[in-house]
């Protein structure tokens, strides 16, 4: 029964994302693992639930009927469980926080440290992801609170609380000769960027006329290592601590043009009230941002 419950929840997530890979990322699974779970569920049902398309997957007639029953049922179950937790005033349990990778270097760690200091009995789970993945985790209920760039939030199911504006800078080896401040539309600079679905990648593509992105990395650490190896420079928030860059012998350079700035927001779901603990964590984040 436990296995069937898990498979049905995975099925709902695949249907919501219309992608096995996206669903797997949001559930912290490999694509092969979620594919096996789906195959087992389809064998149990006796019918295919999805058809593969060039862009992902689409529900079959059987899949649509199952989703119509399963999605509201799980939403009601999750809401009831959350309501019970709130009514009982639980001070134990787990709070799941999703954050864009960059924030873990200069914001979320400090906020979470304050929270843990107040609630030593609460288990805190932190997930570093891209902006779209943070949104997906909160939307699906796999995260209670998310910290993300506002441009990635486009859902009536999410409430966004503004925190602060993040201004970008160019990061390069100390030996790299650059004008200060640098104009990214005029300087001939090779860049290491995040993958295309990341908010910072989209920002570069939209603001810089012809960005020379020669390599991509999914984490800040990997990006800084590539920059230190001479592959190119990178664009990251100017709040990245100097001590982190010093480990790679890198320095920041201000960007004169274009203006690269994004707003950080905290996101929660609108269809269910946040627990008192999540509300307190959000208050700590808001206070730390101002």
From TrEMBL:
SUPFAM superfamilies per the UniProt record, alphabetical: Periplasmic binding protein-like II, Winged helix' DNA-binding domain
Query: Is DNA-binding among the key words of this record?
Result: yes
Q: Which UniProt keyword terms apply here?
A: DNA-binding, Transcription, Transcription regulation
Keyword presence, Transcription: yes
What terms describe the molecular function in GO for this protein?
DNA binding; DNA-binding transcription factor activity
- Give start-end of the signal peptide: none
Q: Which residues form the HTH lysR-type domain?
A: 1-60
* Gene Ontology CC terms: cytosol
| Matches recorded under PANTHER family | HTH-TYPE TRANSCRIPTIONAL REGULATOR YBHD
What is stated as this protein's family in its record?
Belongs to the LysR transcriptional regulatory family.
Protein name (database record):
HTH-type transcriptional regulator GltC
């Amino acid at each position: 029964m436990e296995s069937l419950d898990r498979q049905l929840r995975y099925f709902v997530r695949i249907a919501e994302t219309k992608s096995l890979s996206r669903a797997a990322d949001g559930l912290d699974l490999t694509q092969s693992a979620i594919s096996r779970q789906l195959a087992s569920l389809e064998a149990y049902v006796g019918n295919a639930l999805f058809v593969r398309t060039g862009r992902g997957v689409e529900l079959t007639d059987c899949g649509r009927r199952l989703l119509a029953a399963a999605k509201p049922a799980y939403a009601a179950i999750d809401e009831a469980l959350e309501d019970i937790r709130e009514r009982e005033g639980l001070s134990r349990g787990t709070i799941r926080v999703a954050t864009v990778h960059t924030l873990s270097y200069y914001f979320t760690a400090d906020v979470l440290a304050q929270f843990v200091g107040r609630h030593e009995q609460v288990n805190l789970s932190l997930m570093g992801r891209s902006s779209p993945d943070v949104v997906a985790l909160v939307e699906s209920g796999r995260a209670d609170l998310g910290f993300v760039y506002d441009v990635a939030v486009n859902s009536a199911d999410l409430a966004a609380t503004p925190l602060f504006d993040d201004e970008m800078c160019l990061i390069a080896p100390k030996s790299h000769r650059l004008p200060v401040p640098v104009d990214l539309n005029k300087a001939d600079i090779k860049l290491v960027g995040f993958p295309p679905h990341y908010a910072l990648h989209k920002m570069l593509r939209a603001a810089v006329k012809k960005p020379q992105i020669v390599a991509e990395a999914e984490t800040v650490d990997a990006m800084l290592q590539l920059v230190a190896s001479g592959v190119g420079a990178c664009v990251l928030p100017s709040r990245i601590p100097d001590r982190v860059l010093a480990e790679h012998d890198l320095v920041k350079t201000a960007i004169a043009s274009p203006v690269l700035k994004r707003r950080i927001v905290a996101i929660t779901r609108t269809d269910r009230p946040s627990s008192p603990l999540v509300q307190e964590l959000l208050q700590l984040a808001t206070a730390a941002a101002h």
